[in-house]
Write the structure tokens for this entry.
Amino acid sequence: MKKNLFGLTLDELTNELTNLKLPKFRAKQIISWIYQRGANSFDQMTDLSKSLRQQLNDNYEIKICKLIDRLDSKDRLTTKFLLEFDDGATVESVLMRHDYGNSICISTQVGCAMGCKFCASTQKGLERNLTSAEIFAEVFFVNEILKQNSERVDSVVIMGIGEPLMNFDNLIKALELIHAEYSLNLSYRKITVSTCGIVPKIYQLAEIDLPITLSISLHAPNNELRSLLMPINNNFNINEVVKAGGDYAKSTGRRVTYEYILISEVNDTTEHARQLIKILSGQLANVNLIPINPIEENNFKRPTKDRIKNFCDLLNAHGLTATIRKEFGVKINAACGQLRSNYLSR
Ligand code: SAH
């Protein structure tokens, strides 16, 4: 079987090519063909000799991922990709064209084990982790499409399917590939990682100290409710999660974002807002309010616009920095694992 070169770092490729006794500069040349010029066959690498191309072709391949389905919103602002990897596993990646640039939301696992009650991605459990190459492939693939119009991926949010911090090492390596100068050369500052609150991993992330943004899915202001909505709260409770967020902000000097889905009559009352203010006050934090995208599997409803605005205003009036998330792709099932779950049911 041929070894896939896609997803190797420069060091790994250099090391790999010593098997063919190639000089070091060849790795640089080849990696730039793959990641910057988008070559997916060795024949395209015209500055390599024919015999070298043949030799590479005999031993290696360049395989990224397969596009299974693509949905474009009417306003063209959102495009959703269903991508398939070698073993038939599928994930979703969503491109959102903001006025400040192209942002892509990517997945880190095939399915998810976290069991959050409001989330479509976790309904069928976890199939497997994505490899670092596969996580990177999501960004690379969409970037190649954008390049056709002289555009690029300007920012990456890791808020797709899966819990990124449960796939920690592959996540970090994928971020390295997205960031590397020989690859997409995207600043770490343009990357956001979202977690449901795997506390020890938040500390590990703080220690690595990449200048990425950390986002924590809170969704409830007390343990009783959070445990109902997010089973992970039984392992790491809200006090530990908020403390880890606070410590992360302190040690890295970077503001943490808390995500809070608003579900009508479940977590959106004035009392909930007061509790939220109490637990987050004094933190270097933003609160991102997300009106829920209802999914079939439960009957959670979205609060009215007024209720959402009141909740937001109350937080802001008490010293928190809260915003309501601008919505993309609800109409094309771009929200949270919906394209994949529909595909699996078909
Ligand atoms: N596991 C990570 C990242 C994936 S979820 C995490 O929990 O943060 C990314 C974000 O989408 C989370 O804030 C998640 O709670 C939110 N989300 C999931 N289902 C949703 C739904 N039905 N409506 C709105 N947001 C949802």
About this structure: The radius of gyration is 21 Å. The chain has a mean pLDDT of 94. The pocket of S-adenosyl-L-homocysteine is lined by residues 114, 118-119, 159, 163, 194-196, 217, 259, 261, 290, 292-293, 295, 335-336 (CB under 6 Å). The CA atoms of residues 18 and 52 lie 13 Å apart.
